[in-house]
User: Which sequence fits this backbone?
């Protein structure tokens, strides 16, 4: 998507030197636009863990590139056995960075399987490069298609609004900054906006890390989409007033039966949508399905540093500063995700179309995963 | 309640000079403990509007003292007509500070009616002083009684927990800092804690102003009550996990039929409580009932500065600082309250006992308001 009129993706290979991965270091947005060069798997693991990059698809793509960097590093090994051992270590290191996002393990495993097909180190490195590019390109294409399918939902609502804005509420950032491009939840919104539909987005700020205020608001503003930032507690009130026509969120992991793990607080918005008859959709590329589980309770929920809750991290006088919001000695807890049960989900928007959030409907779109 | 072992109320008359109202300026908590002297109604209106004082009961008590200060100021008038005109102006000024809290207009109207019984300025001032003291004393006593009635709920739950902590979730600050003393939602918790019951409180941080992190956590810590601060989005997840036994919140205005206006986000917690069979109670002294309306939709919802949403206000290097969380040009909205419909409320805890959230049950406790 565009930043100040210039086309960007969130992660790419340096065109002058394909051994360097470049990514937007999102920690400084919306205040500073920083591009980071990443040349080792340790750097990439750190970038994922410390959230220089974040979001389901982008974590997957970053892990794919991370495995490619690991292959380059392993290329200095004396033997293929040593190469494989080093690569397995790298895979474990990457998988350990973020427990909830399924794209992470999906990308690492895809790389591991493909790299195993190479006989020599140069062959393995070439396969890792090709797979990393494929993962990123697929992510981009799947998000583009999600935008196309989701557009129909918005067009449908637009017909009953008589030219008045279509109000879409979203939580956290499932925009292009969370993927390689386009985004999941925001893809239909960008597509509708580009077609001239009057879309307006309610942006949940998404404490404690403010991905809504910092990232979603910024990328919508860069693309010229009307939006309003709200505290995370506001969505229910807006739905009660009739000011939300549609909720679209992303997903970090969705079970084969349609239970949705997403940023903490998604469940509360789904409850409010149900209570007010507002359609609640989850947009996700198929890489965010966990085909191995049915019940959302099996999804591990990441707990992060309590400092994120007890402090706020923002911009002042040209730098990022932390301010304390709480008594120094008060305990805090920081659950990163929750699970929205499928009964609260109106539908899933995938690259293959829209379906209900139940196993039968999901497998109709993805029959290759019927067991 | 206690601050560092010393007994405090939130507002009082300077014992050496009863023309000076003293209050805890809550803007600097938990980092600094500041006592403010207030000697004019304009100062008091500012203290309410800018939230030096906040919370249903404390707004009422502050308005009561504000009318007393107004009477002192009006005492310099040449005629009683001029006195009355000045007092009416002061009443309007105070009422305009915060639109949602009903205790505000209730206290101002009680003062206006009582002061009208005085024939001379000195008589009117004496009546204003007496009424201000009565309002504060009643608030304190009603909160103490709410603690007694609410204790039974917690004792009931304790019986099924076999000595394990009773986990109570609360939103915003409805503790003693929101009243003259004891609090509404926290009164049962303090009472249970003082009786030796193992209570643990989940403290919603309550964006955008962080009254949970800054005030609730601080007053619980000062009193030694175990607690954990969480982002506002976390409560639903905790209820899904079975980690919440009871929700108790306060109310800024409750209709005669039991619809509850409270801090924005309360409605979402009530939905989650319903979805997980967690009892959801609202604690309020009768001064927070608006007997004139049935339907919660009639309650005006305050909108505050969007800067509260786009920024965070916290402590760093010995001072309060604001940091920016969002793009400078992104719009924001800041609704201060929402309405929880009575169907989601398990019960109301009042100074006269606990009742269901319906008009018949409420009027059984408060028959003088049956119309």
Assistant:
């Amino acid at each position: 998507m565009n930043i100040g009129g210039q086309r960007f993706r969130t992660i790419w290979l340096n065109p002058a030197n394909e051994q360097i991965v470049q990514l937007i270091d999102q920690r400084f947005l919306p205040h500073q636009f920083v591009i980071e060069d990443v040349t080792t798997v340790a750097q990439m693991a750190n970038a994922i863990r410390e959230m220089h990059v974040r979001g389901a698809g982008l974590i997957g793509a970053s892990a794919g590139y991370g495995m490619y960097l690991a292959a380059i590093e392993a290329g200095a090994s004396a033997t293929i056995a040593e190469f494989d051992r080093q690569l397995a270590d790298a895979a474990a290191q990457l998988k350990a960075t973020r427990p909830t996002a399924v794209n992470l393990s999906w990308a690492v495993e895809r790389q591991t399987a493909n790299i195993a097909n190479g006989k020599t180190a140069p062959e393995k490195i070439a396969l890792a490069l090709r797979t990393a590019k494929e993962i990123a390109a697929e992510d981009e294409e799947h998000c583009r298609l999600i935008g196309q399918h989701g557009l129909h939902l918005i067009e449908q609502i637009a017909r009953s609004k008589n030219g008045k804005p279509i109000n879409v509420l979203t939580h956290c950032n499932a925009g292009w900054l969370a993927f390689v491009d386009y985004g999941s939840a925001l893809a239909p919104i960008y597509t509708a906006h580009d077609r001239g539909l009057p879309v307006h987005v309610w942006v949940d700020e998404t404490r404690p890390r403010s991905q809504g205020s910092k990232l979603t608001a910024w990328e919508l503003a860069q693309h010229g989409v009307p939006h309003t930032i709200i505290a995370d507690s506001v969505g229910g009130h807006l739905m009660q007033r009739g000011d939300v026509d549609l909720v679209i969120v992303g997903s970090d992991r969705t079970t084969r039966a349609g239970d949705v793990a997403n940023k903490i607080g998604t469940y509360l918005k789904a409850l409010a949508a149900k209570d007010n008859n507002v359609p609640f959709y989850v947009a996700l590329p198929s890489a965010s399905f966990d085909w191995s589980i049915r019940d959302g309770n099996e999804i591990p929920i990441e707990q992060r540093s309590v400092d994120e809750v007890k402090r706020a991290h923002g911009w002042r006088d040209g730098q990022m500063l932390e301010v304390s919001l709480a008594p120094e000695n008060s305990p805090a807890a920081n659950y990163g995700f929750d699970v929205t049960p499928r009964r609260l989900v109106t539908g899933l928007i995938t690259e293959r179309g829209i379906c209900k959030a139940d196993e039968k409907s999901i497998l109709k779109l993805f029959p290759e995963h019927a067991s």
